[in-house]
Design goal:
By secondary structure, the chain is mostly helical. It has one domain. Helices cover 61% and strands 4% of the residues. The protein has nine helices and four strands. A hairpin with a 2-residue loop joins strand 3 and strand 4. The radius of gyration is 19 Å and the shape is elongated.
């Protein structure tokens, strides 16, 4: 985020949009809970537990990854630890774990979609410099932003430049594609499918979107061949989702967003 979002700045556009994303996910998950015969009051308790556990666990896990990559894997760690919190809760309450995941799957996509707008405003998760003649939605960030500092360090702009070079608005690209994914999965009826199926499709859809978006982002380093850390994590996510559905049991209940 911009360097002037310091410890004395209590309210930022990013923070407000993050809260809006969490609220949206909670509201949609409550609707989904009714569709799979889960008392929505469980979601009222689960949401703060999952978010708190995810933020704390994701922050701790990111400490074990060096440099800026720790910040970039934090989102995946937050979701992973949050899912672990759902599992523990399901064991205590005897609720079906896969149905709890189903209740949260599409709401999380909706939250990520809103969250990416916050990233765009904050200047994080920025895109690569747009090549000449390539049609794209671009943005230029002011001094103090990550993109500006990166271009300055690389000698792409002179000290005192008024803005960064034009970069891909990858945050908005991702938000737009996630909206399409959300609308497509929203229209599908899941009553005849095994519990956890919508979770698998949601995870795989996001992993694919993020995998290809990474080619337009400038905040990740290539670590293996032509792949970034996040792309490797996307591959792991897809394999994990497939293993989940292969080991799943059958379930009933129509899921809707």
């Amino acid at each position: 985020m911009y360097s002037h979002f310091d410890a004395t700045t209590w309210v930022t556009p990013y923070g407000l949009i993050f809260l809006a994303a969490i609220t949206l996910a909670w509201w949609l998950a409550r609707r989904n809970a009714r569709a799979v015969a889960i008392d929505p009051s469980h979601l009222d308790l689960l949401m703060p537990i999952a978010v708190s556990a995810g933020v704390v666990g994701g922050t701790l896990m990111a400490l074990f990854v060096s440099g800026d990559e720790g910040i970039r894997v934090k989102l995946f760690a937050v979701v992973g630890v949050g899912a672990a919190a759902l599992f523990v809760y399901s064991r205590f309450t005897k609720l079906p774990f896969r149905r709890l995941l189903d209740a949260f799957a599409l709401p999380v996509i909706a939250a990520l979609m809103v969250h990416r707008v916050g990233c765009f405003l904050a200047g994080c998760c920025w895109g690569d410099v747009v090549g000449g003649g390539l049609p794209a939605t671009t943005v230029q960030y002011p001094p103090g932003s990550f993109a500006y500092e990166q271009h300055l360090d690389a000698g792409l702009i002179e000290p005192g430049a008024l803005a960064s070079l034009p970069v891909h608005a990858v945050q908005l690209y991702e938000a737009g594609v996630l909206l399409v994914v959300l609308l497509l999965l929203w229209r599908v009826r899941w009553r005849r499918y095994a519990a956890g199926t919508i979770t698998v499709l949601t995870v795989c859809s996001y992993a694919l979107v993020r995998f290809f978006i990474e080619y337009l982002r400038a905040d990740s380093e290539v670590v293996l061949g032509n792949l970034t850390v996040m792309q490797l994590l996307c591959i792991v996510l897809m394999f994990s989702a497939v293993l989940l559905v292969r080991s799943g049991n059958t379930g009933s209940g129509e899921l809707r967003v």
